[in-house]
Fold this sequence. Notes:
Layout: E1 2-6, H1 10-22, E2 28-32, H2 35-44, E3 49-53, H3 61-70, E4 78-83, H4 88-97, E5 101-104
Parallel strand pairs: 1-2, 1-3, 3-4, 4-5
Amino acid sequence: MEILLVDDDSVDRAVIIRTLKKSNLAVNITEALTVDQGLKLNSEKVFDVVLLDYNLPMRDGIEMIVEIRSAPQGSSTAIVMMSTSEDEEIALECIKAGAQDFLIKSEISEKN
Length: 112
């Protein structure tokens, strides 16, 4: 499974990568720190899933969702928005923009 992880926080990225690698999934994870880096990588390679932080420097995750969904190949990519915020309005805004799911970062863990 090809995963694009877009998050500017190195600790959060490390936790997510460690959790994914503990799963039984065969994953190849590509990392980006900004929306612009993520969009560039997404245009160069097809990803099965984009794990996207809501709060990023310069541009937020919703802007990236909108750009991915407007690209010809963007409709087949699953997008999961992640945030430290538990604000339901933010979650709804992300889903309306085209995310399949919204995860609170503190709840991301390996399920046994």
